[in-house]
Amino acid sequence: MRGAVIVPEGKIAIGKLAQALMHGARVVALRGNFDDALRIVRDLADKHPIELVNSVNPHRIEGQKTAAFELIEELGEAPDALAIPVGNAGNVTAYWKGFQEMGASPIVYGFQAEGAAPLVLGHPVEHPETIASAIRIGNPARWEEAMGIFTASRGRVAAVSDEQIIDAYHWLASCVGIFCEPASAASVAGLLAHGLPTVDGDPKPETVVAVLTGHGLKDPDTALGKAPAVISCENDLSAVERAVFSD
What we know:
It is a single chain. The strands form two sheets. A four-stranded parallel β-sheet has the order 5-4-3-6. It has a two-stranded parallel sheet with strand order 1-2. Strand 3, helix 5 and strand 4 (107-113) form a beta-alpha-beta unit. It is globular, with a radius of gyration of 20 Å. By secondary structure, it is an alpha/beta fold. The protein contains eleven helices and six strands. The N and C termini lie far apart (56 Å). The longest helix has 15 residues, at 162-176.
């Protein structure tokens, strides 16, 4: 069985590309963006005996929804609120499905990057741009489901800047000890930027879970590009001491 991965040329994080290539996938770099890629793979699946395994696949949602089960198991109950990055909105759809099946309805806060925020703007973004490659989506596959979830949960969708995303990305690694990819940090960036808004009369949520959707090694280029430089040093103890202890 052949695995094929269709990605935008020059727009895919190197860690994800490496995994696909090493597992033997045929990787096709498309001269377009993620939305173009989704349109083409949908057409491919309609025309050929291909199983499309991205956010539009219902079996994927069935698997992803179990993350909501795990949260309830870990916490002993559902959180009051869930903060989550939004690209194609598959995760939002899946988490909500899981919570609903467990009889829970936490407030859902979705966060998009300012340069790729169609749900916030209310219309598709033709040329989405953000450092957070995993949510660089201009026309989410599960747009209607996501907006319905924000309404049903009395939550909201908001945007955060790339600068806010990178600040949260660094903070998570340096202060919390979690190295995530930039798109993941959008959930925390959103909470820091927008707080916990509620509908008038609703209590403020006390238990809030911020979902980090991907490990930092999926996008090592951003990590290295935003990190301090490596210090070159002579092969000498005193030189290493100066490098380690100097301000």
